[in-house]
Write a structure and sequence with these properties.
Layout: H1 4-15, E1 19-20, E2 35-36, H2 39-47, E3 57-60, H3 67-75, E4 79-83, E5 91-94, H4 104-108, H5 110-116, E6 118-120, H6 122-127, E7 133-136, E8 140-142, E9 147-148, H7 154-165, E10 174-177, E11 183-184, E12 199-201, E13 206-208, H8 226-231, H9 233-241
Parallel strand pairs: 3-4, 3-7, 7-10, 8-11, 10-12
Antiparallel strand pairs: 1-2, 4-5, 5-6, 8-9, 12-13
């Protein structure tokens, strides 16, 4: 979307004072979506969303801002699917009972995810069925539901793969968790590639979005370079599955 880089940079300046640095990337927000002061309160709001408490099969992005949410889901015994960083090693599932009591915090981080989690082929992921709920972090999000990631498009690509597989659709609840400074208080019109969210949860408020456009569907192979496919095993697997390899 035009202006996406400006929107991120507009937010990142204010976020720096509230963000928790990453152990590898420090404050380089183009490389990760940070956790922030007050994120636990935002998680409380997310957990109160309609239908969330009943969700038993949930996809959560690997963002630092969602670590506490992943911990809570593991404690609650929810079937949790998380993508690896930059989709470099595909997807993992943490099934109920797979994490010993007291280790949920470690398992919620990416290193712990790969220690306790079970790597999934797309065939195995498909067998788990449709997601009851999807949650992503964001660098910024507009009140109209337009979400901005780090600028690399991984969540958008994951959504397109999931939609091809029948795991998500127009009715799948999608929420994002951000600090108040990451909310753009203006209406932005989505591009055909934008995955609009239904809910925005911050430490101080819960915003319901009335989506005015359909979500994207299906991988646009013409926009993906061969080296990108080679770098992401799940994408390469789907490329073969649909008969393009």
């Amino acid at each position: 979307m035009p202006g996406a880089s400006f929107a991120r940079e507009e937010i990142w300046g204010g976020l720096r004072a509230l963000a928790r640095p990453d152990s590898r990337f420090h404050f380089r927000f183009s490389e990760f979506i940070p956790d922030f002061e007050g994120s636990a309160a935002a998680m409380d709001r997310l957990c109160d969303l309609p239908g969330f408490a009943q969700a038993r099969h949930v996809f959560v992005a690997p963002d630092n801002s969602l670590t506490e949410l992943r911990r809570r889901l593991l404690v609650a015994g929810v079937n949790l699917v998380v993508s690896s960083y930059n989709m470099a090693r595909g997807f993992y599932v943490l099934r109920p009972g797979s994490v010993p009591a007291g280790h949920e915090r470690y398992a919620a981080w990416l290193d712990g995810l790969e220690h306790f989690g079970e790597p999934l082929t797309l065939q195995a992921l498909s067998a788990l069925g449709r997601f009851d709920f999807v949650v992503s972090g964001a660098s910024a999000v507009a009140t109209s539901g337009v979400r901005f990631g780090r600028g690399h498009g991984f969540f958008d690509l994951e959504w397109r793969i999931f939609s091809d597989m029948g795991l998500v659709g127009e009715s799948t609840p999608l929420a994002t968790v951000v600090h108040d400074v990451q909310v753009l208080e203006r209406r932005l019109f989505p591009s055909p590639d934008d995955v609009l969210v239904d809910w925005i949860c911050t430490p101080t408020r819960t915003l319901a979005v009335a989506r005015e456009a359909a979500r994207p569907r299906g991988v646009r192979w013409q926009d993906i370079a061969p080296e990108q496919i080679a770098a992401m095993p799940a994408l390469a697997e789907w490329h073969r599955t649909v008969g393009l390899a």
